[in-house]
Write a structure and sequence with these properties.
mainly alpha, two-stranded antiparallel sheet, 19 helices, 68% helix
Amino acid sequence: MELLWLNLVIVFFFSFFARYFAKPAIHAVSIPTISLNKIYVLGSLLSLALISGLRSNIGDTYFYMHAFEVNNLTWENVKSQENIGFWIFQMFLKRLSDDPQILIFTTAIITNILIVFVFMKYSRHYELSTYVYITGGLYLVTMNGIRQSLTAAIVFMATKFIINGNFLAYAIIILFASTFHESALILLPIYFLVRYKAWSKSTLMLLVIAVVIVVGFDKFSSILFSSLENTQYGHYKDFQEGGANVIRVAVFGAPLFIAFLGRDKLREIFPESDYIVNMSLLGLVFMIVSTQNWIFARFSIYFSLYQLILIAWIVKLFNQKEQRFVYLGILVFYFLFYYYESVISLNIYYKSEYINFKL
């Protein structure tokens, strides 16, 4: 864990000064109206990408590396595969090197660049987004589910088109992302749902639906998995890893609760917040359902990134005198959660063949 703790310190340091030394944006259409210091942003990005990209364990990293080594990645073998985009991606990388670390390193760089780029554009406190990206657990998720995390980062880039109402451009990105992981296709109809005003009856109904699904989960799961039986996701019906931690659901829901209480002010200072809130709300729905079966938490990865933008704005919903306290509260609360999840609950051990650091 030593390198992961050091990474947290480095990323927060560079992220904080990226905003501290920011300049007013020129011709800014909406908030945020600052231009982050690119040198410090690069520092935070490099730390995120290097620590992730040079790992040799955590989650399914070993299996991806092993598959990269043993698979014969020729066009003849690749063209008939599902999720062909990811196979072509691997085929290209293997032409550059047979070392499987190139797969881990390249996906880490692309995933974190795309995520950081959107943070730069829409986060009010960039350093809070990157801090909670790590302490909230999503950074670790990108190391355990490489293909879907890369897909989620590509989808995240479509945020601009949700806000601008450009469905064609949005759909093109989603379809491209689905060649890496087909589950991205669920984002196509969701576009029309999140384009409504936040906290409307239709969006609040989602929470009711989530509760109903939890109560009647046995019936719901049998119907769902029967419909998926003949697809690549059919094996999930036998998935028996239990449900997601209730504490994680509470952590996910807390920023949304604050956003609801300050919804009018949030809409005033961040006009695009409705779309961010709606995407975060959908993430909460999946997290609630995932308490019955953890596999549903995999879908929440597409929405969790929006919560990181939301967290970067909730400080501004409080009075000036309270903002420092709230800011520090976020830092402390998520630090404690990170310790609980990474050390106590999951006992994460980071290993790298390239970095050896001991405190």
